[in-house]
Amino acid sequence: MNSFTFKGLLAGIVLACAFGQGASAAEISGVKLDDTVKVAGKELKLNGYGMRQKFVAKVYVASLYLPEKSKSFAEILKMDGPRRVTIVLMRDLTSDEFGDAFMNGLSRNVDNVEKAKIIPQISKFGEMFALLQVLKKGDVLHMDWIPGTGTQCEFNGKKIGEVVPDLLFYNAILRIWMGDHPVDSSLKTALLSGK
């Protein structure tokens, strides 16, 4: 076995371990996805997953977990109960690169009136990205909506940043991938189609 193959195998094992426990429902580029996860004591189902690509480069794997599966983004926005978006990095990024992509995604999908309502929350999220400095291939970011608490993020198993209480903010985050102008239209289809 040459060193390239061995390194690839090792990276896949590390990603699988980092991604979580439970029955694996699917796999994409060596990233294993759990069929269900628990958020705030509730079991969520894998709704869909896909690869964010920029030109030909793989950037990250995104997955969406919901109380009940849905192919309707409008329905997802109105759902009760917790929700989770998980990002697994497929290459190294600086916090500036990740933060800029996040802000661009928000700007393209949230109008100025709505954005004005969530400026303080956006600022808190920006501070969180600044704490990360560098994101490495294999890093795992969970963005959870917890009813009665707010948006809570976890990076490689550790809670990071402040809790952001407004559901409007979490729904704005979801629009980055599933709004009218998603960062990647094929990823939007994958997250909503159960693929």
Structural class given helices, strands, pairing?
alpha+beta
**Which H/E pattern describes the elements?**
HEEEEEHEEHHHEEEEHH
- Strands, total number: 11
Average pLDDT over all residues? 87
List the uncertain runs. 1-23
Q: What is the CA–CA distance across the termini? A: 32 Å
Kindly provide the name of the CATH class. Answer: Alpha Beta
The percentage of residues in β strands lies in 25-35%
Keywords: Isomerase, Signal
Organism: Massilia antarctica
Protein name: Chalcone isomerase family protein
GO molecular function: isomerase activity
In short:
The protein is α+β, with helices and mostly antiparallel strands and 195 residues long.
Helix and strand arrangement:
Layout: H1 3-19, E1 24-28, E2 31-34, E3 36-39, E4 42-54, E5 57-66, H2 73-78, E6 83-89, E7 93-94, H3 95-109, H4 112-117, H5 119-132, E8 134-135, E9 140-146, E10 150-155, E11 158-164, H6 167-178, H7 185-193
Antiparallel strand pairs: 1-2, 3-4, 4-5, 5-6, 6-9, 7-8, 9-10, 10-11
Helix pairs in contact: 3-5, 3-6
Structure description:
By secondary structure, this protein is of the alpha+beta class. The protein has one domain: Chalcone isomerase (3-Layer(bba) Sandwich). It has seven helices and eleven strands. The protein has helices at 3-19, 73-78, 95-109, 112-117, 119-132, 167-178, 185-193; strands spanning 24-28, 31-34, 36-39, 42-54, 57-66, 83-89, 93-94, 134-135, 140-146, 150-155, 158-164. The strands form three sheets. It has a seven-stranded antiparallel β-sheet, sandwiched between helices. The chain has a two-stranded antiparallel ribbon with strand order 1-2. A two-stranded antiparallel sheet has the order 7-8. β3 (36-39) and β4 form a beta hairpin. α3 runs antiparallel to α5 (119-132) and α3 (95-109) packs across α6. The N and C termini lie far apart (32 Å). Mean pLDDT is 87; it is low at 1-23.
